[in-house]
Amino acid sequence: MADDAVRAVQRIDRWLWFARFVKTRALAQRLVAKGKVRVNRSKITKPSQTVSPGDVVSFMNRDHIKVVEVIAIGTRRGPAPEARLLYREINPASAVATGTATHHILPEIRTSTLDDPPGKCKFTGTLPDKGNS
Question: What CATH number belongs to 2-91?
Answer without folding.
Answer: 3.10.290.10
